[in-house]
Design a protein that fits this description.
The protein has 356 residues and is an alpha/beta fold. It has 13 helices and eleven strands. The chain has one domain: TIM Barrel, CATH 3.20.20.80. The strands form two sheets. The protein has an eight-stranded parallel beta barrel with strand order 1-2-3-4-5-6-8-10, surrounded by six helices. Strands 9-11 form a two-stranded antiparallel ribbon. The longest helix has 19 residues.
Amino acid sequence: MLVPWQQLRILILALTATIASTSLLLRPAADRAHLLVGTAVRPSLFSEAAYSATLSREFNMVEPEDEMKWWVVRRNEGTFDFHEGDEVVRFAQAHRMKVRGHCLVWDHHNPEWLVQGHFTPAQLSGLLQQHITTVMKHYAGQVFAWDVVNEGLDERGQVKDSPWYNQPGIGLRDKGTAYIEQAFRWAREADPQALLFYNEAEGEGLNGKSDAVYAMVKDFKRRGIPIDGVGLQLHISQLDFDTGAIAANIARLTALGLQVHITELDVSLPLDPRGLVRDDDLLRQAEVYRGVVRSCLQNPDCTATQTWGFTDKYSWIGYHSHGARGAALPFDAAYKPKPAYDAMLEEISRQWNRTQ
């Protein structure tokens, strides 16, 4: 029979082992650091055991890749179909995860009936307000943050041609960002509790496009347009990517009183003819991931870091690059953590240690 001090020693050893094992996972490390660590998901894959197990174990936030976009929610004009988005919400609730909504307004992924419908600006305005209101009210209290407008600016930082702006637009053609701010007003009316984000690509560091995003959201804040944050996508293809510039951009955005979310992070690598990557490229990729996470953690108002998918098995990169690039995510196609995962975990764990 064990004496009390022996029982205590065994208990301490057991607790130490438990803490050590959980500290090797991304999600508990992020929870301790008060960071949302998320990923974009496809509910059609929830039935795959390795997919759902890895997802629920490693992440505390999810966002649907497509299931809340126009072309899924409104396949025809008269009907809203939420069942695919609802699957994401149910999975998140079952595993105590937060849900980001993506996205309410975009020039891409709109249904054919809308694009080819020859609607007048007044009709399009009514359709857009109805869409924003209906979708946000359906998910009120379930989706904590929305990408209200996605990629509204072109590579020059000018307002992009789109059905909502000028083809034919919602009645605010040639009035700059007026249609974007109108979408934010409708979003705030639809769900006053949700955080409202503008989400953009290729404006993550310091360049002309990020300057244009900064000027737009600064103007919105000055005039009281309801906006809570900016999403930085970060689809990276260069292993010499300057992550220091991301920190500078985050700093100026948060100085306006906005949150920042890293929303679509992946770092693609060149593939050889056999579809393989170089080991040193995996290590360089890990340092890019490390730099992005560090840039976010340096600023308390950068509150979420999210990858666009989490396993190379289902990444969009291979299809998009016609097989020339891949291996962009923290887990390989067999769900094995890569050096990029280790780098993310190390940075987040360091953040927690610094606050103790």
